[in-house]
Amino acid sequence: MPRFEGFVPGRFPLDAIGAGGFRFADMSHKGSIIATPAGIRIWPVTRFSEVTIESLQPVLDEAGSIDFLLIGTGADIAFIPPALRDPLKQAGIAVEGMATGAAARTYNVLVGEDRRVAAALIAIE
């Protein structure tokens, strides 16, 4: 299976999660990812405390094609603070935080329904 080298254009379901990474589009990647309608890219975040509005800029850049952002917060659920929630809301994007496994499954369902969704997913072991 080829390694993921930073960005793959297109919309793909996630085939597997865990072992510190993700499988999608016949590729694998160790580490966190952001999946938007434009494609999947490396996300240099390893824990929820590192999530900033700046780290979510790829989502804001595509705000016109995203209604809903799922943040996979790692192994545990974390509250999405106003510093993240408010700028996304101003851009027209609703946000929900949940454990990464649940976020990835929900993302796959919404992509399958052709919904305007993005996911920022922190890798889990």
Description:
It is a single chain. The protein has one domain (7-121): Hypothetical Protein Mth938, Chain: A (3-Layer(aba) Sandwich), CATH 3.40.1230. The mean pLDDT is 94. The protein is α+β, with helices and mostly antiparallel strands and 125 residues long. β3 and β4 form a beta hairpin. It has helices at 57-61, 82-90, 100-112, and strands spanning 7-9, 14-18, 21-24, 27-30, 33-36, 39-42, 68-72, 94-98, 117-121.
Which SSEs are present, and which pair or pack?
Layout lengths: L6 E3 L4 E5 L2 E4 L2 E4 L2 E4 L2 E4 L14 H5 L6 E5 L9 H9 L3 E5 L1 H13 L4 E5 L4
Parallel strand pairs: 7-8, 7-9
Antiparallel strand pairs: 1-6, 2-3, 3-4, 5-6, 5-9
Pfam families: DUF498 (PF04430)
What would CATH call the architecture?
3-Layer(aba) Sandwich
Cα distance spanning the termini: 19 Å
Read across the widest sheet, the strand sequence of neighbours is 1-6-5-9-7-8
Q: What's the structural domain tally?
A: 1
* Overall strand count: 9
For the structure shown, list the relevant keywords:
globular; 125 residues; 6-stranded mixed β-sheet; Hypothetical Protein Mth938, Chain: A; alpha+beta; 3 helices
